Model the fold of this input.
Amino acid sequence: MQIQPKNLHNYPKFWPHKKGLVPVPLLPMTRNEMDQLGWDSCDIIIVTGDAYVDHPSFGMAIIGRLLESQGFRVGIIAQPDWHSSKAFQTLGKPNLFFGIASGNMDSMVNHYTSDKKRRSDDAYTAGGIAGKRPDRATIVYTQRVKEAYKGIPVIIGGIEASLRRIAQYDHWSEKVRPSILPHAKADLLLFGNAERAVVEVAQRLATGEPIKNLTDIRGTAFMRQGIPEGWTVLDSTKVDTEHSLQHPKADPYANMIKDQHCDQSKASSKTSANDSNAGAVQVIQFNQRAKDLTRETTVIRLPSFEQVLADRYLYAHTSRIFHLETNPGNARAMIQQHGTRDVWLNPPPIPLSMEEFDGVFEQPYTRKPHSAYGKLSIPAYDMIRFSVNIMRGCFGGCTFCSITEHEGRIIQSRSEDSVLREIENIRDHTPDFKGNISDLGGPTANMYRLQCKSKPIESACRRLSCVYPSICKNLNTDHKPLTQLYRRAREISGIKRIFIASGLRYDLAVRDPEYIKELVTHHVGGRLKIAPEHTEEGTLSKMMKPNIGSYHRFKKLFDRYSQEAGKEQYLIPYFISSHPGTSDKDMLNLALWLKQNQFKPDQVQAFMPTPMAIASAMYHTELNPLKKITSESEAVSIIRTGKQRQLHKAFLRYHDPKNWPILRQALKQMGRSDLIGSSDHHLVPYNNRNAKPHQSSQSNKDLHHRISVKKQLKKGRFKKKNNRKNKPTRPR
Done:
């Protein structure tokens, strides 16, 4: 398996015909569009659950344009009718493979709220119309493609496949589901952003190599039976042994793992786990000494799907091991048995270099939706239409977020010149551009070019977060490159304002006050959204988020520089209700903090257990995978019932009269009736009589009023009215 990968843009161009292939205005979605391009067939067809938008914020556009740059003819089937295979035959049979993704979101997250209510709209569909993709879209699309064309390789990818690559807890069915790979019966799964993997797969298939031979590509998963020659199997319990037990020589998982340590008829039969290890050079289990191990030929055996389905301790253990093996520099291959076969996960892909990353984002995107949608609005596109992505990845490791599981912890950044060229491209070629860039960021606003100070240390590191419980001393937190990028970007001719709308890691920002000054002075449009998520240490420790003191330090600098700039600006903090490890008392303390700081949130984010997130493992198992899992592991309190989830939401919206009855009842049960009354130190009044309609906090009210007045003035309203009593009327 390659450690120093081939440059993404150095592959020979694939084109078996005499005439060359030039970039097309838009990748074709119909046979008629193929005919206009002179194509008799597509080499690769991408099926997506999103509307086709040729913009680098959409997965199908990035992969499609990248493969086009390699010389392949790529077609798009966007949001096909999945009730039959007919819609999947629109572009004919591809020469190489079908690539399938549910879209930019997991289809279940796209369709349902955290309370499992069906959403009424879809931001990734023209017109915002819901219902244009099926539940579990990757599985359904794969089945329809296989019905349409038997024998054509089918490769699944995107965030839905990536976050369901091993057995995972599914919030909507409330059970552990198997890996999506055997469930969909796809030939190969690509996880992460997958540019390296998809290019290598396409190039090797183009040379005639069968897809069953593509087992050595990083960032891929496939089904396998038995262990290849020369490999050593390392039991996952060996990787994360709890040494603090009273009897360290005893296997802490012995009472959990069924069949693996069975004493029955050793000579006459083997357990299913041992059968699956057939062909291995050696099998290293708990308390056995490993000899001559190399990461390139070592595979970690995770508890099987059947085991994690039956045992919550093994599920939590599996989640922990999985997350410890995500660093491309030291990750080993992992396998998880499903029935008689294994899901084999190769190590994550090596991050793209700056040159490669620039190349991905500088493909000839039109930055527009396909013309088939006419004038219909695509809400997700409208949001990012004038934004620029400058980086990828996140080393924060927040347990409720899946960015690190998908994009990785190592930050991939574009060069300044590449970012500036894209801004100029938006200025010169995007219709209706008024001179304002809506965002210059990525998964986070201020991790641009932040990385470990030492490559050897980075390659050996197994921390789940570079900033929790404290910022690592080996992490470079210098924001000067980002500050310089902001300054160069706002100097571009024709650019009026550049806003920063991505999530800000304020615990990093306070390390560089000069960055905060630049941000506050030039790039905040009155309000800056940040996400403390909570105020209480118990909950924050389960989130892997910094304590609330970091927020106060940032706010002090934010207010100082806003005042120096002569601007009245506000922080808009976001919080999560019902996160694992949160008690009613924690939510009460958060509500009191909100009231003390005069925050009255209009939007409330309730915790949603998304596939593969550490917090989802906490939710399912009621255990804490941030620590080694044993029979004595820390229990985590979970909010499951609708009534208690409603209460936690009500604490965040303590100011809404609709929530006062449930809050009064809860405060009485908690022995805090002293918080019921009409004075400023009370949380809710005695009754709802004469209750005023819900209003925002005073600072937010003033801000909304100023913005409204400004808009009205622009529209020519608020002009001085004529005094009709003193002015003669005009004849009609």
In short: Confidence is low (pLDDT under 50) at residues 242-273, 717-732. The CA atoms of residues 23 and 240 lie 50 Å apart. The domain at 386-513 is CATH 3.30.750.210 (Transcription Regulator spoIIAA). The radius of gyration is 28 Å.
